[in-house]
Design goal:
Length: about 250
């Protein structure tokens, strides 16, 4: 088991936004955490990545209790994430955005950078190579030297994923990676996420777009902070409760 939450609960004042969530994720799996807007998906992300502390419950990652771990520690332990609102460096190129993200997982000390040591220069070369490899894997090589702010929306979202991949995560968490994409961009992105899993990452995807179902091994559905269903994508599509609660009675 790579990730396990035990009775995870979060309240903001009197408002319970996450209640008693027991979610598990095995190594190599793609898990979809789905639910309508306001269900608590981003809150779940922020709890696991250490941005928020839970009101009660536990988070176990790779056999360790990380319930109150800070975001930089969670990142160093191999938890990488992309954001729903994509914080790119708009005036940097695609390549520079990905190289910069490597420094979130630093192998050089500040002194190395300051004195421009051999170790630092070697590391820089390594980072440039790694960045190009990531761009290649994510289909971004063709826009390598474009400024991030000039990219079409779909590419910007994939660049957000590339930045998360650059931190060399064991667990890759994607918050609404398909948000605002057209159907062509969606199928492109689904292939890319599959490729990332095949390269050895475990993936947790938060989405309200049901098209993500095709990609997931298993799906966990929440609504108003409560689990309403867990099962295979096929089972989710046919579950009355999910259809009623989540889709307002519309079948997909
Ligand atoms: N910092 C906060 N303070 C108070 N309420 C919050 C805070 N962050 C999120 N919420 C509330 O928690 C609920 C879940 O939000 P969120 O996790 O962003 O949902 P989702 O990502 O599924 O759309 C919403 O009702 C939201 O208004
Ligand atoms: Mg959200």
């Amino acid at each position: 088991m790579l990730l396990e939450t035990i009775s995870l609960t979060k309240r903001f004042g009197g408002l319970t936004v996450m209640n008693d969530i027991n979610l598990t994720l095995s190594e190599g799996e793609i898990l979809g955490l789905i639910g309508p807007n306001g269900a608590g998906k981003s809150t779940f992300f922020n709890l696991v990545t250490g941005v928020l502390a839970p009101t009660s419950g536990k988070i176990i990652y790779n056999g360790r209790d990380i319930t109150y771990t800070k975001p930089h520690r969670a990142a160093a332990m191999g938890i990488g994430r992309s954001f729903q609102l994509n914080p790119l460096f708009g005036d940097f190129t695609v390549f520079e955005n990905v190289t910069a993200a490597h420094y979130l997982h630093p192998k050089s000390s500040v002194l190395d950078v300051y004195f421009n040591t051999k170790r630092y220069r070697n590391n820089e070369k390594h980072i440039e190579k790694s960045a190009d490899h990531i761009l290649d894997m994510l289909g971004l090589s063709g826009v390598r030297n474009e400024l991030a702010k000039n990219l079409p929306h779909g590419y910007q979202k994939i660049l957000g994923v590339a930045r998360a991949v650059a931190t060399q995560p064991k667990l890759l968490m994607l918050d609404e990676p398909l948000g605002g994409m057209n159907p062509e961009e969606i199928s492109f992105s689904i292939n890319i996420i599959r490729r990332l899993r095949d390269s050895g990452m475990t993936v947790l995807i938060v989405e309200h777009n049901m098209q993500i179902l095709d990609l997931c091994d298993r799906v966990f559905v929440i609504s108003f902070g409560e689990k309403i269903f867990e099962g295979s994508p096929e089972e989710v599509r046919n579950d009355e409760n999910v259809i009623k609660t989540y889709l307002g009675g519309v079948t997909v």
